[in-house]
Amino acid sequence: MIFQLIALGCFAALYGCYLAKMLAQKKQGIQTDHLGEGKQGFVRSVELTTKLAAALVLLAGLASIFLNTGRSPAPVRAAGAVLAVLGAAVFIAAVHTMGDSWRAGVSEREKTALVTTGIYRFSRNPAFLGFDLLHLGTLLMFFSGPLCALTALAILMYHLQIVNVEEDHMILAFGEDYLQYRKTVRRYLGRKRQKI
């Protein structure tokens, strides 16, 4: 029961933050969700598949929590709980730090700021890292074959979204400033050593 409560709390925190930010931006006339919008070809496929994978892993995670699937040993479930809590915290920090520049997907027509402060000093993609940690944590707490497959699919699609859509957009939008940032901060976690 404790792992169900922890997992539900993490899901509520992360997805509650996501929805609250989306609603707050809508009130300001900012469209948050740009996944698949105005895109064509491979980029459109990646964004729409990412959106579908995110929805499926969310539903599978919630079903696993409510059904209390999996019988992993308590230490494995405890590790999963820690990852899930970290994931929710990292995601919330990412959304807070991004401010009005927060978007799901990229928009060619909306200008946003390059954010390199706060949690972005340690991860170029902390929101995706937050999702990954939440879903990996959920998998450790409530392991099942379907949840494992959907978690792997979602993490793969988040990665493809980053390397095939987000990073290309950042180079076009911010040029040398982004390239310099990329030289100092890793894609998921950690700072790079500067060569002297």
Structural overview:
The structure is a single chain. This protein starts with a helix and ends in a 12-residue tail after the last helix. It is mainly α and 196 residues long. It has helices at 2-27, 41-67, 74-98, 126-141, 145-184. The chain has one domain (2-19, 34-103, 110-184). The radius of gyration is 17 Å and the shape is globular. The protein is built from five helices and no strands.
Briefly summarize what is shown.
This protein is mainly α and 196 residues long.
Chart the SSEs and their pairings.
Layout (H helix, E strand, L loop, with lengths): L1 H26 L13 H27 L6 H25 L27 H16 L3 H40 L12
In terms of DSSP E residues, the strand content is under 5%
Helix vs. strand class: mainly alpha
Mean pLDDT: 92
Provide a count of the helices.
Answer: 5
Characterize the quaternary organization of these chains. Answer: single chain
How many β strands by DSSP?
0
What is the count of distinct domains? 1
Tell me the overall shape: globular
Radius of gyration over C-alpha positions, nearest whole angstrom: 17 Å
Q: What is the helical fraction, as a range of percent?
A: 55-70%
Name the helix and strand elements from N-terminus to C-terminus, one letter apiece: HHHHH
First-to-last CA distance: 53 Å
Low-confidence runs: none
| Largest pleated sheet | none
